[in-house]
Amino acid sequence: MTAQPRPDYAALSDAQLAALIAARDPAAVRLVTERNNQRLFRTAWSILKDRSDAEDAVQSAYLHAFAAIGSYEGRATLSTWLTRITINEALGRARAAQRRRTQLDASAVIDLNDYRERLMRGSSQGNAPDADFAQAEVRRMLERAIEDLPRPFRLVFVLRDVEGLSIEETAAALDLPQATVKTRQLRARRRLREALAPELKSALTGSFPFAGADCAAMTERVLAALPRS
């Protein structure tokens, strides 16, 4: 029997990739995760403001998405569909964390498990990009300033100015009117201009790096966690 030729995965449509993922094709899973890891990480971070929590949210979003990949109808791009799922996952985690904080505040009980986890994270948040010290410091300043934005502004700003999505793509991902996206982006930019010198904008594209080993590790974790057909 003649072996079937290996498809050119990079040339496949979103619908074709979704069908392959539904069949648990590891090459399709790898391609889709590698294409979307950075966008989804940045999206989750813009809600959770914690690197470790954002990574967990992205991995969980992938697993939920791939488990339900049969429901993907192609009305939006696969990237937009995954972004929506990641937003919902991150928002759910943020709401759960807020409920936990409220309960702790009400009972004045220290959550020792949460405290220990935060201590263990330690150096995981110090993953500076490959740049000299000054450039790394500029990026840290930018990340702190973006972190201080209100969540609705921060999420739009990360998708538009950091990730480079169009107004239409951002509106679709967030299920917002395009006019609202424009308004929130303008307000986010205005707040950042007030907080940072204009020359810092040139460092923006390097903020929140999630590539190289981080990207590869996310893909491998998703592949390992997927149930086999």
Task: Write the topology of this structure.
Blueprint (H helix, E strand, L loop, with lengths): L13 H9 L3 H23 L2 H17 L10 H30 L4 H10 L11 H15 L3 H12 L4 H8 L3 H18 L16 H14 L4
Helix pairs in contact: 1-2, 2-3, 2-4, 2-7, 2-10, 3-4, 3-10, 4-8, 7-9, 8-9
Broad shape: globular
Radius of gyration: 19 Å
Q: Count of helices?
A: 10
Distance between the ends: 23 Å
Helical percent range? 55-70%
Q: H/E series, N to C? A: HHHHHHHHHH
* Strand residue content: under 5%
Q: Compute the number of strand runs.
A: 0
Low-confidence stretches: 104-131
Describe this structure in words.
It contains 10 helices and no strands. With about 230 residues, the chain is mainly alpha-helical. The longest helix is centred in the middle third of the chain and has 30 residues, at about 80-105. The protein is globular, with a radius of gyration of 19 Å. It starts with 13 loop residues before the first helix and ends with a helix.
Brief account:
With 229 residues, the chain is mostly helical. Helix content is 68%, strand content 0%.
Question: What are the salient characteristics of this protein?
Answer:
single chain, 229 residues, mainly alpha, 10 helices
